[in-house]
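note to self — DONT lose this again. spent like an hour looking for the file last time. sequence + predicted structure for the chain T wanted, 300 res
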Amino acid sequence: MARHVSTDRRRGFRHALIFLIPGLALLITFMIVPFVSAFIVSFTNTRLIARVPARFIGFDNYVRMFQDDVFGKSLLNIFYFVAVVVPIQTMFALALAVLVNQRIKGTTFFRTAYFLPTVTVMVVVSVIWSFLYHPEGLINGFMQTITFGRWTPIDFLNNRSWAFPSIMLLSIWQGVGFQMIIFLAGLQSIPETLYEAATIDGANRWKQFRYITLPQLKSTTAFVIISTTILAFRLFDQVYIMTRGGPERTTYTVMLHIYEQGFRRQNVGYASALTVAFFLIVLGISIVQRLILKEEREVA
């Protein structure tokens, strides 16, 4: 009997390995190998167009990174972006998921409408919103209409106070549909009997949401927060297209700084050092988030 069980386990392991190989191959090819390569290059003075052979320079790139005021500014900007976008987008996604989870007519249409921006290419979205944010665009026109001409048109993307909030609004609108779908899957996995029992006990909708829905969605919420944080740290497309980091670097981000150093200034060694450091920062924050959310789930 024990021999039969051992044989089944080995067969199951072989079958699992067959399914794992494609994913592992992609992971190694597109994540592990590039990261190891960037780590090695970060200790050299490699240029994009090599006129002179690359040489080992030790930790010079990392020392330069700590002395780079632009990198510090971009790091503060991206932390500000994450701190604003992640909680707002998560709350909106949960609210939309609850709305489209209702058993009423038209929910399929609204699910599609809310999810559609997610599958739209960010380049297209950024170009369209650039027209909306123009001083003579639809947003200023709408505000002038509802204020009977008292609204002073704002050049949102060239205004220090409005540029980053404008990009945040665009990012929340474009990405909320993805988190909504995840929350929707979590909502539909909650047993209906829990709500039936709560209704019999006299619990209203708010109490059902607070004491049933939210606790049952803790694992889903943890996944949404971590994935949204990682995506927010990767902010690049909309900044590059809409503001190029301006005005006065108020929207300048780490990804844009890496692009500028690696491709425009062709300093691949320094860009690799920035990439490695930024990867470790995001990884550390994701691990801390995971530990905190795991402790909260265990306490609950």
